[in-house]
Write a structure and sequence with these properties.
The radius of gyration is 14 Å and the shape is globular. Strand 2 and strand 3 (31-33) form a beta hairpin. It has a 3-stranded antiparallel sheet with strand order 1-3-2, covered by helices on one side. It has one domain (2-141). The protein has helices at 9-17, 45-55, 62-73, 79-93, 109-121, 128-141, and strands spanning 2-4, 23-24, 31-33. The N and C termini lie far apart (30 Å). With 142 residues, the chain is mostly helical.
């Protein structure tokens, strides 16, 4: 698996607290390789948008997920912020997390907590533009 972001020791501790375990390769290309097997899928746009399309209307926090995506692709978003976003979106995409997504009623509660935590922690980096882009994307893709 390859996730694209810069990491430091504090970030690794936060990410490990979320259940991810990484071997880090710190380069200017921002690679993190070899996620542990229990979270072996990577964040990529195809999987992300495929999951979003499956859960639109079923998951109440879908707008926040899409807002995080637009924050992620913003060139002005700092690398460490992108790292936290990629971790949260990767967790959202992966179906076998703390509470598997296919579990009726409560399957997305852990995902909601991760998304809410990252959104709240990074609120100063989430711009009105990201919200506008997310709303437009959701209108077009409902």
């Amino acid at each position: 698996m390859v996730l694209v972001f810069v990491a430091n020791l504090e970030l690794v501790q936060v990410v490990n607290a979320l259940g991810y375990h990484f071997k880090l390769t710190l380069t200017r290309k921002h690679k993190v390789n070899n996620m542990s097997q229990d979270h072996s899928q990577s964040f990529n746009e195809h999987d992300f948008f495929s999951k979003i399309r499956k859960v639109i209307g079923k998951v109440p926090f879908i707008k926040e997920v899409v807002v995080l995506y637009f924050c992620l692709i913003d060139n002005q978003t700092p690398f460490l912020v992108k790292a936290a976003i990629i971790s949260a979106l990767g967790y959202f995409i992966f179906p076998l997390d703390v509470i598997p997504d296919f579990t009726p009623v409560i399957g997305y509660t852990d995902d909601a907590g991760v998304i809410a935590g990252v959104t709240g922690s990074l609120a100063m980096h989430i711009k009105p533009e990201h919200h506008r882009q997310a709303e437009e994307w959701l209108l077009i893709n409902r």
